[in-house]
Amino acid sequence: MTTVASRPSHATPAPKKRSKIVDYLTTTDHKKIGVMYLYFSFFAFLVGGMLALGVRAQLATPGGTMIEDPDTYNALFTMHASAMLFFFIIPIWAGWGNYIVPLQIGALDMAYPRINALSFWLLPAGFVTMFSGYLMKGGPAQAGWTEYPPLTAARFMPGYGTDLWIVGLLLVGISSTLGAINFMVTIFKMRAPGMTMFRMPVFTWNILVTSILTLLALPVLTSALIMLFIDRNYGGSFFDPGVGGNAILWQNLFWFYSHPAVYIMILPAFGLISEVIPVFSRKPLFGYKAFVFATIAIGGLGFSVWAHHMFATGQVLLPFFALMTAFIAVPTGVKFFNWIATLWQGKITFESPMLFAIGFLTMFLIGGLNGMFTASPPVDYALHDTYWVVAHIHDVLFGGSVFAVFSSFYFWYPKVTGRMMDDKLGKVHFWITFVGFNLAFFPMHMLGLEGMPRRIASYSANPQWAFLNKISTLGAFIIGVSIFPFVYNLWKSRKGPIAGNDPWKANSLEWWTSSPPPVHNFDSLPQIRSERPVLDERLQREAEAALAKGASA
Amino acid sequence: MRPVGPRLRSRLRLAAVAVLPLLLTACAQQPQTEQGKKVYTLYNITLAIAVLIGVGVISMILLSCVRYRKQPGDESMPPQTHGNTVFEVVWTAIPTVIVLALFGMSFVTIRAIDKPSGNHAAIIEVRGYQWSWTFDYGTNAAGTRVLVKTESNRTPPQMIVPVGEKVHIEQRSDNVMHSFFVPAFLFKRDLIPGKANGFDITVTSPGVYHGQCAELCGTDHAQMTFSVKGVSRAEFDKWFNEFRPPLPKCEDTAKAATEYTVTALQGRAEWETPCAYLKAGGPVSLTMHNQGGLPHNIAVFEGPMTENKPVGKPGKIINSGSDTVALPALEAGKDYRFYCQVHPLMEGLVKVSP
């Protein structure tokens, strides 16, 4: 039997404030880098959220009187999407990946700790670069996060905003690429003895598939960004038909990355949900291998569907992309059935991480189902570039990824800090978020069906859209309010009840070590005989204890 | 197995209420074209399947949450089911069948909508500009070019089509991408610079249908609206044959000079006043003052710019400030117009008086 060496409490004497800052600035510890990722991407989430509230405030009335200048509004939604996608959702999973993956596979650290630090520090650099557009004459990028040329050609979009956006995103791209290589090497080469590929936790599996997607898809976006930069600044002619370029080429290159990027944002969320549901149902994940293969299938199919963002151009092979897009529903459906089968016959408890996971299941389902409509080219002719699509991306990315992000905070906070979060406050947070989310995004389906295009600063010609827009704006502000109990909870729980190694009676190795883990992660490792090593040890200990009790009786 | 309790039933009812709005959305837009009706049918089939799956899956989630919640004091482990090959094969097969069926229907509908055909009652060339449209029907029997556009950039242009007849729309753009979108037609297609695009529509009932650009195209994207009016064949012929291109109204009484300045409004593709007043008979000059925010130039033509009879040299494209073009002697009574060549809808009249 393996035992946990009882460790002295590592409440080391509080270091001086300055030395702590220097420590974080120079650290190569995957846990500290992970925490910095979390802080930074949560900050980006707040920035993106404020920009979204600006968008919603503008749309509360048909005339859009809050923002006089449409360019300011165009910059708002462009920077909202850029902050949320590139600086919040993608990095926050890189943050949890950093913190959790080495722990889940029983490794000391990431494979390349200094490259890991570089990956992180490139992010704030990218953020500052992109958002410094706000200091420039003409403002930041304002052609939407898709930056379609020729609108982004210098003759239609002068000023430095777009250039800064391109350079900022290039820095993010380097960060993601380095991070992806680091995750792959770590996962392939640094697993503890006994941790075979098919004993890895699903979260680690999903981070692995995500990293492979990033590594394969990102070079295409990087090339496209450089080409756009050359077009704008050095007289290139890649994308602007006015000088002999091809406008559709950008769309193909952009979506070749940005569609897989959707999976880069959602697969880690799937992984997290697949950790939380088994723990709080007290059952193994139903069909573990099928689940892993479904993840790989989604990753693979993800490369053959990019042009479903371009059905309305009439310039793509519709049947091929429609069929491939339809097929994505199959592995996703398998995952849903597996999650439900995991719940089935369980002993389910509803602590905050589980509540957000159930929220994820129901809300992401809506995002999957309304995706079925736009996967059909003729229906997409009606719905493309309307608020239906805005509803779809938010159902998938908010109802999906963001619910999973909140679940991950409640789930892993005890591991990172050694303290439990306040569960009651967590439930308050959940219900406010849930109500706000549905009010904000459900009406958008109907607005889309009524023909309200996205990215418009006003809709004076269609005042009948005002009612649904007002509901949506109300919902957005409720989501805004929901952040307060969460942030308060994060702050006050630093003095919450002591968590212990394994407060949730969980399965994977991160729960074996102390909370927070020591610098070297593990003092000992259990034998790894399944994908639930910590549970195996717990059951064995309980069985031995029962035996001992029986013997002594 | 415990019987389904009243609490559960009330939760299921709650779920049913939650999907009601989704059902209502089926009636949001009634299609007004033959092609749109096909899209509408496909939409409704997809909606029915989506609602069925949605209600089924959400009920299963809620059912497991209610039925299998941990009872207080029960610390035993539930059955540790790791998987079941039969179930997993079945629930891989079910979505495969559903998506293949939906794909089949989409495929048939694509064919029906995008089928090329040579029999058109009219061919209309739609051009997108920053930020309006022109609808070009070609020349009528009287020799007039039937070209519909905004009047002084204020009233959105209106496309007139005969009801019940197939019309072909050709799409072109020389500037940025736009998208021709009429919600009531359940259809949109992008205008792509450098590539001709097009589609057919058959409007089924008379009426005026709102349309607008659906592809972000810059500052005034939201103002890039238009409408399509379905009329009877007789009404269409009358309109087509009696078409007169509207011109900006400039008062003749204004004082003519040898130098005149027109102003391009801050951040807009619009002249402050689309009129310039110049003296006939001698060299004159026309100055554009660009208030900034958008690139403009000024160029003078005899007749519409499309007829390409330039008068003098066109001015430089500037982002702000002033630029002056020198013009040769103008003749009173001739139709002179000035344009910004970046925004060809910025049309103004040059009034020449002795």
User: Structural class per helix/strand content of chain A?
Assistant: mainly alpha
Low-pLDDT regions of chain B:
1-5
Q: How many strand segments of chain B?
A: 18
- The count of helical stretches of chain A stands at 15
Rg of chain A, Cα atoms, Å: 24 Å
- What are the secondary-structure elements of chain B, in order, as H or E? HHHEEEEEEEEEEHEEEEEEEE
Indicate the overall shape of chain A.
Answer: globular
Radius of gyration of chain B: 30 Å
Roughly how many Å apart are the termini of chain A?
Answer: 22 Å
Mean pLDDT metric of chain B: 86
Low-confidence stretches of chain A: 1-6
* Global shape of chain B: elongated
Biggest interface and residues each: A-B, 91 and 98 residues
* Fraction of residues in helix of chain A: 55-70%
Described by strand count, sense and barrel closure, the largest sheet of chain A is: none
Percent in helix of chain B: 25-40%
Question: What can be said about this structure in brief?
Answer:
The complex is a heterodimer of chains A (553) and B (354). Chain A has 553 residues and is mainly alpha-helical. Chain A has helices at residues 17-26, 30-59, 70-104, 113-131, 161-189, 202-233, 247-281, 288-301, 318-343, 352-374, 377-383, 387-417, 423-449, 466-492, 533-552.
What does this structure look like?
The complex is a heterodimer of chains A (553) and B (354). With 553 residues, chain A is mostly helical. Chain A has helices at residues 17-26, 30-59, 70-104, 113-131, 161-189, 202-233, 247-281, 288-301, 318-343, 352-374, 377-383, 387-417, 423-449, 466-492, 533-552. In chain A, helix 3 packs parallel to helix 5 (161-189), helix 5 (161-189) packs antiparallel against helix 6 and helix 6 (202-233) runs parallel beside helix 8. Chain A is globular and about 85 Å long. The model of chain A is unreliable at 1-6 (pLDDT under 50). Residues 1-5 of chain B have low confidence and may be disordered. Chain B has a 5-stranded mixed sheet, with no helix packed on it. Chain B has a 5-stranded mixed sheet with strand order 4-10-9-6-7. Chain B has helices at 6-24, 34-67, 85-114, 233-241, and strands at residues 122-129, 132-139, 145-148, 158-162, 166-173, 178-182, 187-191, 197-202, 207-213, 225-231, 259-264, 275-279, 284-290, 299-302, 310-311, 321-327, 336-339, 347-353. Chain B has 354 residues and is of the alpha+beta class. The chains are: A mainly alpha (553), B alpha+beta (354). At the A-B interface, helix 3, helix 7, helix 8, helix 9 and helix 10 of A face helix 1, helix 2, helix 3, strand 6 and strand 7 of B.
